[in-house]
Design brief:
Oligomer: single chain
Distance between the termini: 50 Å
Number of helices: 1
Number of strands: 10
């Protein structure tokens, strides 16, 4: 998608096609397979999709999708920090191709609050990283304070008295968590204004 590329757009698009420049743009929305599966969103609540069911319901191209010339591998994530504002998730990003590249890595999460359907994923932070051919770099991403509200941790406390858990993961190609690479934190859910404590 070139959109309106401006006066240098033709040259830049040619450089992308010829491989002289690494494309790093990522989709800011999910694109549906057809109009029979609208709406499509990466952050909808699990088990509560509101859409037509006349066709496959997964996205043709999901939120954060994008192509590049370099190939990437993301190592096992690790988290440090206690409170939500202190948590930093890190992993090693490897460029397994024979050319230098630039990649965008996102920190995603979802809250498991008793009595509330969790979202599939919420983008909590991201960063762009440049890595030489065959090289690797440690990527560290903290939670953006403006994204915390999307998790649903401000819900009324559960009648069960069970704490909420926060699942975190890093990804460079999809908002959905890679198998076995979810980090779980137990967090207390503080009641919002006017709610019983």
């Amino acid at each position: 998608m070139g959109g309106y590329p401006g006066p240098d757009g033709g040259r830049l698009i040619a450089e992308l096609i010829m491989g002289d420049r690494e494309p790093i743009g990522r989709l800011p929305v999910s694109l549906p397979r057809s109009s029979a599966s609208l709406p499509v969103a990466y952050d909808e609540r699990m088990g509560a999709a509101r859409r037509y069911s006349d066709s496959e319901s997964d996205a043709l191209l999901g939120f954060g999708a994008g192509l590049g010339y370099a190939r990437w591998e993301l190592g096992e994530p690790a988290a440090v920090g206690d409170g939500l504002s202190d948590v930093v998730v890190s992993a090693v990003l490897r460029n397994t191709s024979e050319r230098a590249g630039r990649q965008i890595v996102g920190l995603y999460g979802r809250a498991r609050v008793p009595g509330l359907l969790p979202r599939q994923a919420v983008l909590l932070g991201f960063t762009a990283v440049e890595v030489a051919a065959g090289g690797e770099q440690t990527v560290s991403i903290g939670i953006n304070p403006y994204a915390i509200g999307r998790l649903g941790l401000d819900a009324p406390p559960s009648a069960t008295g069970l704490p909420a858990s926060l699942e975190l993961w890093l990804s460079h190609d999809s908002p959905l968590p890679p198998r076995g690479q979810i980090i779980t934190h137990i967090v207390g859910v503080s009641p919002g204004p006017g709610l019983p404590g």
